[in-house]
């Protein structure tokens, strides 16, 4: 089995940098109330090798450091790290193998998004910010058990049907989000919880007014291609 010492200096330098990024981004999950205790995880794929950096399993967030992050290959095998990797490692690896443009994956159990997942419902697209970020509803994926590639398979299958969405709510489990890097996936996780909460509140007041698909397309195009700094 390969170890990090088998890789060249360019790869080892990127591993060091990505460990720092991934460790810091776990603090954002706490900041935005997306996780409790040891639940949830962030990973980022390397550009210089078929490796990823992911949170260790069962470690409390206040104890996470760059050195505690675990380096795995894209089959989920540990390449470097003193801790066991997240129980979702095989699913993260599956997503990276089957979605080559994805370089960041996040899983949370954030309250309102997970409530939609528990009822097996898409979050309906009733907000312009949903058109912006998700290009439509936030979809629900199938029920799959933890500990194998099965959840990753469900994420990939679902997002093929919703190619503009960076998020999927795995039924009875919780949200998984993807991005061009781990920070983008964390942002998508925070946005998923925000719209889940707002759409839940809207349901208490009455029927949600759907946004026409052609307007969703315009919103998404503007946000993805014009909004912000380029």
Automatic annotation (TrEMBL):
| Keyword Secreted recorded | no
Q: Which cofactor does it need?
A: Zn(2+)
Residue ranges of domain Class II aldolase/adducin N-terminal in the record: 20-200
Give the signal peptide as a residue range, or say none if absent: none
Looking up InterPro entries in the UniProt record yields: Aldolase_class_II_sugar_metab (IPR050197), Aldolase_II/adducin_N (IPR001303), Aldolase_II/adducin_N_sf (IPR036409)
Q: For this protein, what is the EC number?
A: 5.1.3.4
What keywords is this UniProt entry annotated with? Metal-binding, Zinc
Which reactions fall under this protein's catalytic activity?
L-ribulose 5-phosphate = D-xylulose 5-phosphate
Enzyme class, broadest EC rank: isomerase
**Recorded coiled-coil stretches:** none
Question: Does the keyword Zinc belong to this entry?
Answer: yes
Q: Which PANTHER family does its entry note? A: FUCULOSE PHOSPHATE ALDOLASE, L-RIBULOSE-5-PHOSPHATE 4-EPIMERASE SGBE
Could you say which protein family the record assigns here? Belongs to the aldolase class II family. AraD/FucA subfamily.
Protein name stated in the entry: L-ribulose-5-phosphate 4-epimerase
Q: Which organism is it from?
A: Bifidobacterium panos
